[in-house]
């Protein structure tokens, strides 16, 4: 969701667009997109469709890759989407407030392209679900610290390239070599296919 109240596809966002997020005090805020950690418009990829029932009985469907981090309700540490189980409570937005929603189903599907926008808080609300900007590494806060030099670069010099994959790839290589135990293992559980 943008500051203007529009719901838009991640593929339509650009650097500078204001999107819904959550600050460290658990307040809903709008903040700008600083860049994209991943922006792959082509190709088909595996996505999880996580079906969530909100307290008002509305159903929310989050479309996310299994290696992306999302926040459980009343838990400061997000988990890989692929580790979410039916019955888990996720942090969602209902009536412009943070709330909880119960996972009722998880299905696997293919979808074209994937995007991971970067915000100052390292968080973003996607499909009314609070998600981390980060994937692959199970510690959101470690990933957030690792992105600080890039954010400082942006503040000092501005965006010099739409693609920050060189920085992300360097971090991934470091983590794989030295911190393998914090990387996503690639396993997930689903209840069906779409």
Question: Would you kindly provide a brief summary of this structure?
Answer:
The chain is built from 3 helices and 11 strands, in the order ββββββββββαααβ.
What's the helix and strand layout?
Blueprint: E1 18-22, E2 28-32, E3 35-53, E4 59-64, E5 68-70, E6 79-80, E7 89-94, E8 97-118, E9 123-126, E10 129-135, H1 140-146, H2 148-157, H3 165-178, E11 192-193
Parallel strand pairs: 8-11
Antiparallel strand pairs: 1-2, 3-4, 3-8, 5-6, 5-10, 7-8, 9-10
What report would you give on this structure?
Keywords: Developmental protein. It contains 3 helices and 11 strands. It has 194 residues and is of the alpha+beta class. The relative contact order is 0.21.
The count of β-strands is 11
The percent range for strand residues is 35-45%
> Can you give the helix content as a percent range?
10-25%
Radius of gyration in whole Å, from Cα? 16 Å
Counting helices, strands and paired strands, the structural category is: alpha+beta
What is the ordering of alpha helices and beta strands?
A: EEEEEEEEEEHHHE
Shape: globular
Q: How would a textbook summarize the main sheet?
A: 5 strands, mixed
Low-confidence stretches: none
């Amino acid at each position: 969701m943008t500051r203007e109240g529009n719901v838009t596809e991640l593929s339509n966002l650009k650097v500078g667009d204001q999107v819904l997020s959550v600050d460290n005090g658990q307040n809903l805020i709008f903040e700008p997109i600083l860049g994209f950690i991943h922006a792959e418009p082509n190709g088909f990829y595996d996505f999880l469709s996580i079906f969530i029932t909100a307290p008002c009985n509305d159903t929310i469907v989050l479309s996310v890759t299994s290696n992306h981090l999302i926040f459980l309700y009343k838990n400061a540490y997000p988990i890989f989407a692929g580790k979410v189980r039916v019955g888990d409570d996720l942090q969602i937005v209902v009536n412009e407030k943070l709330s909880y929603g119960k996972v009722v189903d998880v299905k696997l599907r293919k979808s074209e392209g994937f995007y991971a926008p970067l915000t100052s808080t390292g968080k973003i609300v996607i499909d009314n679900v609070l998600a981390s900007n980060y994937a692959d590494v199970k510690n959101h806060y470690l990933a957030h610290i690792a992105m600080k030099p890039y954010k400082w670069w942006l503040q000092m010099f501005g965006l010099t390239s739409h693609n920050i994959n060189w920085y992300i790839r360097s971090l991934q290589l470091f983590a794989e070599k030295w911190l393998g135990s914090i990387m996503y293992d690639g396993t997930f559980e689903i209840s069906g296919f779409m």
